[in-house]
UniProtKB/TrEMBL annotation:
Residues of the Deoxynucleoside kinase domain: 8-200
InterPro entries noted in UniProt: DCK/DGK, Deoxyribonucleoside_kinase, DNK_dom, P-loop_NTPase
Residues passing through the membrane, by range: none
Keyword entries, A-Z: Kinase, Transferase
Name recorded for this polypeptide: Deoxynucleoside kinase
Organism domain of life: Bacteria
PANTHER family: DEOXYGUANOSINE KINASE (PTHR10513:SF46), DEOXYNUCLEOSIDE KINASE (PTHR10513)
One Gene Ontology term of the molecular function aspect: kinase activity
Amino acid sequence: MENQFDFIAIEGVIGVGKTSLAKLLSERHNARLVLEQFKDNPFLPKFYEDRERYAFPTQMAFLASRFQQQQDMLSKDLFQQMIISDYIFEKDRIFARLNLGDDELALYDSIFDIMTGISAKPDLVIYLQSSVDRLMHNIRQRDRDYERHISRSYLEELSEAYNHFFYHYNKSPLMIINTTEVDFVNNKKHLDYIDEQIFNQPIRSNTHIHIIPD
């Protein structure tokens, strides 16, 4: 089947493997890789240490960075290759609703509403789900310094917020993959299966597709 996508975005909770899958698929399909620039956010380590104090500056720094990347994607030359990203712009508000107070959220929303209207729209969104146990395992395995402060309760809140968001998501075709028992990094059969479903099966608008490889 001829490739039907110019822009694929992969989403999911911290530790679910969205960046890994984006990298693997971009290598297979010679796609331009656009990754979230979380390392450039100077407030992120402080946020995980003191969530209430640093939520707003962390959120605004992410909003500015993500919007700049969206503008770069919109200006993509027509002859450049497909784009695969490890986030969608709208995900920013999931974190804002979870972490900001009412006054902060109102200010944030006034800016977000302007930006989201002129952000890049994916041709397909892939939402990776996982159990909190698996997320905790993955985070411990990669052992990033600033992620050592992430609590199980925060991941539970975040997972619930993500599930709620994507249950109502209808801006792009949506594919849902439960990765709790899936290892597309080390198991080529799992990666092949996912690749087949994305690129060799018809994707219908506003359709939720659950994929659990054998």
